[in-house]
Amino acid sequence: MTRKKLKIYFMSCIFCKIVSGEIPSYKVYEDEYTLAFLDIAPVNYGHTLVIPKKHYENLEIISDKELCRVIMAVKKVGQAIIVGLDVAGYNVTANNNPIAGQIVLHIHFHVIPRKKGDGLHLWPQGKYRDGEAEETAKKIITAKRDSVHGKSKI
User: Fold this and answer.
1) Among 23, 45, 26, 15, which Cα is nearest to 109's?
2) What is the pLDDT of residues 110-140, one digit of tens each?
3) 9 Cβ contact partners less than 8 Å away, ≥ 6 residues apart
């Protein structure tokens, strides 16, 4: 993609527009690198999105340094949610890529306040059949090992 096309793509990102002030938001936290604001379609009262100010599409793109900054902001927002909203805890989730439910292609973490009986349920859990867990683990380990040696997409 050309530099011009990249600029157009990033400027069409709703989160980039929130960062630039082009679109208003209910900011709850901001520092030099990150921004946190209330989700416009909250799962629970206080549902907050935490984003890097710089555009990164997903977890594979963002640098380790930037990701650490975002996670530190997630922690601060989570602590403020517990105290400010008087909740017992919160969920942190990221939908990585459209197949996983990522709607806005700008990496973001959901911080969702939780109260007993709030009606929010986690996804159903399954079980591995005999040998499946071992085979799955081997595939992940091999992919990670190969990426260290430059043989993989990771």
Assistant:
1) 15
2) 999 999 999 998 888 999 999 999 999 999 9
3) 1
| Cα–Cα dist 9/6, whole Å | 5
Catalytic sites, residue numbers: 108
Please tell me the predicted confidence (pLDDT) of residue 111: 98
- How far apart, in whole angstroms, are the C-alpha atoms of residue 108 and residue 96? 9
Give all domains of the chain, ordered by start, each with its CATH number: 3-123 (3.30.428.10), 124-154 (no CATH)
* Residues of the chain under the 70 pLDDT cut: 1-11, 146-154
Q: What is the pLDDT of residue 1?
A: 45
What is the β-pairing status of strands 27-30 and 34-38?
antiparallel
What pTM did the predictor assign?
0.85
- DSSP one-letter string for the chain: --HHHHHHHHHT-HHHHHHHTSS---EEEE-SSEEEEE-SS-SSTT-EEEEESS---STTTS-HHHHHHHHHHHHHHHHHHHHHHT-SEEEEE---SGGGT--SSS--EEEEEE-TT----PPP---PPTTHHHHHHHHHHHHHHHHHTT-S--
